[in-house]
Amino acid sequence: MRADAYRGWSRWVAWVALAAVASACSKPPPAAAVAAPGQRAGPAGSGTPPVFSLWAEELICTDTVVAAWLIRRFAATEAHFRLYPKGTLEMEGTPLGVPQAELRLDRGRTCTEAVVERFGITDPTLPRLVAIVRDIELNKWTPKKTPEAAGLDAIVRGLDKGPAAADKQLEMAFAVVEALYADLANRRP
Fold it and tell me: How far is it, in rounded angstroms, from Cα 33 to Cα 48?
């Protein structure tokens, strides 16, 4: 990658990270958007929205974050995510990105791809986003093929290092993925 392209990408990554954190910190997430074990899945009087369960310690996995964002953005906007300690086998709802889940990284297919396939999500921008996630999750030993891969992975992993609780980290990561998606959609050929 040329140095000037890298500098441009670095500025974009910094801007997206700052915007995502500012956005997530300036407004509270929707009521019960991320529910902890034992909490109600939705506001009083509402129907029961779909629940997806994941391990809180797995939030540093970019693939799981993007898969959860896809569900919320395209498949089930009212979906709630329950966070459990790593190793929990009995979880409410549909497991996501954990070893016992149908929707997980498995045999060269990312969790993100599993979600796209399972819910039949079609969008002209998604192939580029899926390629970035594949580059992060499956291309461990060679240089990244997509310029956004290293930045997205660093931001999502960096959110895990911050002081925010796991549910806030997930909402901040959603804001980062949404910003990347918007940028990819605007650059679409």
Answer: 13
Contacts of 72 (CB under 8 A, 6+ apart): 79, 174
State how far the Cα of 149 lies from the Cα of 166, in Å rounded to an integer. 22
pTM of the model: 0.72
Instruction: With beta carbons less than 8 A apart as the criterion, state whether 59 and 96 touch.
Output: no
What crossing angle do the helices spanning 111-119 and 126-138 adopt, rounded to 10°? 150
**Residues 9 and 132: beta-carbon distance below 8 Å:** no
Collapsing DSSP states into helix, strand and coil, what is residue 62? helix
Please report the pLDDT score of residue 148 as a whole number.
94
Domain ranges of the chain: 3-186
* Residue 30: DSSP 8-state: P
Tell me if residue 167 falls in helix, strand or coil: helix
Mean pLDDT, rounded, for 17-38: 39
What's the whole-number mean pLDDT along residues 105-110? Answer: 81
